[in-house]
Write a structure and sequence with these properties.
Length: 429
């Protein structure tokens, strides 16, 4: 049952309002702002229904004080006998969700309170959906970082960085649809090894993260690692066939909390350092952070390939900073590869009357479209505020025009194509 805190210095009015709501909600009463603060701290109601004009601390000041203390927008509805519109505007300016004038009918009060609570539920549902990774159903990167930040400050347990080893081979050999199924299965396996009170999220690609409450023993991490490695191979064979020979598995970097701190960013770096050590030593295992932990020297070519390999390789062209792009360009020129073309894209705002949208807001989107149009073995950089350079490899010069045409078609059909144009110059290098 939803909780409502009713605040009114007029006792008769307070009792009447409570009587109207008590049959539908769990109600708590306070006759002053100070008392309301104490009740809110103890009960954490779903909304506050407060008289606007009260001695000591009025409704506006109560709302301001609660939101400052709890760092949240608290659902408020004000009651008032004042017909001054300025009073109503002041409440709405402070974030009130509704106003009701005294005296009010029970049915009107119930309907307005119900509307507020329904709106709050809808907002919470949307927030929750926005924080979920659509493919796996785990928390997405932003939500994981937010929730783990809270857990690391206040909980005891283990923070785990979990990588799905050799996942890129699934996409390369079996396609992205099969890759998605493997990722979904991997997420389910991670859930299965966690308690209901634990938390798991997907950082992107084949990288996952988890927090295990009250875990401080290496033996527990070892068991979880063995379970995940066994189950992902079983799942892959079920999905891809018994002859599946891709070396799938899990590498896990672990740090215990609060033994090595309570700041999430710092703990993340420590867990990632431990994960790096697992990757150096053959994958499919775990490493637990300690102050004496050192990154070992590279011992063989396989380890070196693991270190150099691009983790979380995405589709489309590789984006590099300008200096890195320049190094690649010089290397290609040194080799004299005549099948590489240099493309210069220039973004221009066509509709000068479109004041609310600037080039700066569109540049990131333009980069995404360029990357998606080009291939994985192409390279792109942003050279100025509205220009991009691309190196397109292994291509005959007369084929470059087709690449440019393909981008033009995609851009013109994008949400930005009507108001922003992109011109492209190119030549063989």
């Amino acid at each position: 049952m939803k909780k409502i805190l009713i605040v009114d210095d007029m006792i008769v009015s307070l009792m009447m309002t409570e009587n109207m709501l008590a049959g539908n909600y769990e109600t708590f009463c306070a006759s002053s702002g100070k008392e309301a603060m104490e009740v809110y701290r103890r009960e954490r109601p779903d909304m506050v229904l407060s008289d606007f004009r009260m001695p000591g601390m009025n409704g506006y000041e109560l709302q301001t004080a609660l939101q400052a203390e709890f760092h949240a927008r608290i659902p408020f509805m004000f009651m008032t006998a004042d017909h001054n519109e300025e009073t109503e505007n002041q409440g709405f300016d402070n974030g009130a969700m509704d106003f009701i004038r005294k005296p009010f009918r029970p049915d009107v009060l119930l309907r307005r309170v119900g509307n507020i609570l329904q709106t709050v539920d809808q907002i919470q549902t949307l927030k929750k959906a926005a924080g979920i990774d659509k493919l796996t159903g785990l928390l997405n990167k932003a939500s994981s970082e937010e929730e783990l930040g809270k857990l690391c400050k206040n909980s005891t347990g283990a923070l785990l960085m979990i990588d799905l080893d050799s996942f890129k081979l699934v996409n390369d050999l079996h396609g992205h649809a099969a890759g998605d199924k493997i990722l979904i299965s991997f997420a389910d396996i991670i859930r299965a090894t966690l308690k209901s009170s634990d938390l798991a999220g997907r950082l992107g690609g084949d990288e996952f993260i988890a927090f295990c409450h009250d875990v401080s023993e290496e033996s527990v991490i070892s068991q979880k690692t063995k379970f995940i490695n066994t189950k992902i191979v079983e799942a892959a064979k079920n999905l891809l066939g018994e002859d599946m020979n891709i070396p799938l598995g899990a590498s896990i970097g672990c740090v215990f909390v609060p033994q090595y701190g309570t700041d999430f960013k710092d703990l993340f770096k420590k867990a990632d350092k431990s994960l790096y050590i697992v990757k150096q030593n053959g994958k499919h295992g775990y490493s637990i952070f300690s102050d004496k932990q050192k990154i070992s020297d590279v011992t063989n070519l396989a380890n070196m390939l693991t270190i150099l390999d691009e983790r979380n390789q995405s589709d489309g062209a590789l984006v590099l900073p300008l200096e890195g792009f320049r190094s690649v360009f010089r290397f290609i020129r040194r080799g004299g590869n005549s099948k590489t073309a240099l493309l210069l894209f220039t973004l221009t705002k066509e509709n000068s009357g479109l004041e609310e949208v600037s080039i700066d807001e569109v540049t990131e989107e333009c980069m995404k479209y360029i990357c998606e149009t080009l291939r994985k073995n192409d390279v792109v950089t942003q050279s100025s505020s509205n220009q991009y350079i691309a190196l397109v490899s292994n291509i005959e010069f007369d084929e470059v025009k087709k690449v440019v045409g393909r981008f033009d078609d995609v851009w013109k059909n994008s949400p930005f194509g009507e108001n922003f144009s992109v011109d492209c110059e190119y030549e063989q290098i």
